[in-house]
Design brief:
Length: 385
Amino acid sequence: MAAARRMLRWVVAAAAAVAAALALDNGLARTPPMGWLHWERFLCGTDCAAEPRRCVSEQLFVEMADRMAADGWRDAGYEFVCIDDCWMAPTRDEQGRLRADPKRFPSGIRALADYVHSKGLKLGIYSDVGKKTCAGFPGSYDHYDLDAQTFASWGVDLLKFDGCNSDSLDLLAEGYRRMSLALNRTGRSIVYSCEWPFYLRPVQQLVIGNFGLSWDQSVTQMAMWAIMAAPLFMSNDLRHISPEAKRLLQNKEVIAINQDPLGKQGYQIAKPAGTDRNDDHHFNLPQPKPWVCFLLGRTRTFSCGSGPCSGRAYAVAVLNHQEIGGPQNFTFSLTFLGNGLACNPACSIRQVLPASRDWGVYSWISSLSVEVNPTGTVLLKVLPL
């Protein structure tokens, strides 16, 4: 019970901090941030002599900035080049300030930020709320104001603030709050990316173009990150990425769903009764699950019983968790959307992923039948007529 009470206090404190951040109308992160971050692909590589192409170094971020500017990533909306853990020297300097590893970042972070800015991009950096980062480098505990001022003086545009090595949940919540205030006091516009230990939405990086994902799984990650209004931070090697992965990550229609100014996070809608049972195989298999989110789209006013109603576009993702067997069909009524008003009297359906195509016009009492590959997702856009 004591542990549960401590957890509840932490959740309340975290919620208060988030509410305060949301109330700060500074124009930052109005839509989910987009960019590139090194961690998932390059981890904590620090041996530049043995592995120069994989080393977390100044050269790595210069090359990624070059690729983002030249290969259409910046134009697609990916604007942040973000440094994750392991950029620091093992100790602070004589004034107690964080410093970059002098061998791997010989020009310093200020010069790197200037280079990234010259490409029309923004620089993100990493620190930790605790005494040490997750990889054991100096953390920001008891240095929040100094570190915030240091980042601002370097021209940093985003701070990823991790949650390792804090002695208690109370100190964790207090550290997040103090860094928020410290960043605001710098007077520089810095996006504050809190890596809470208990995530409320997908915040991990897009690993599309890396190793380990099938094509269907890559489509699923892009579709679900889009419909959940999650940050789109790639972690891959933009110097060596397949044309297919590049087209998926730069898909304008998918990005538009993620960047919708309404910022409505997707949620799972009800499934028809009986769809969790596969009687042919005499055991339960995961069935495709539909997710839906509102989009700002183009609103229209129409008669709706006692008065006018406003119709919005919708995004619908149908996810198949099953890993075995073949494609599955999932049928659901369009009355699920907007209490039956989304397609009143009719709407057009467009498939966005895995391939773009128009499905035509449907009435509000119509049903959709969607075939989804194992571990795959079909992403649709529903537009009221």
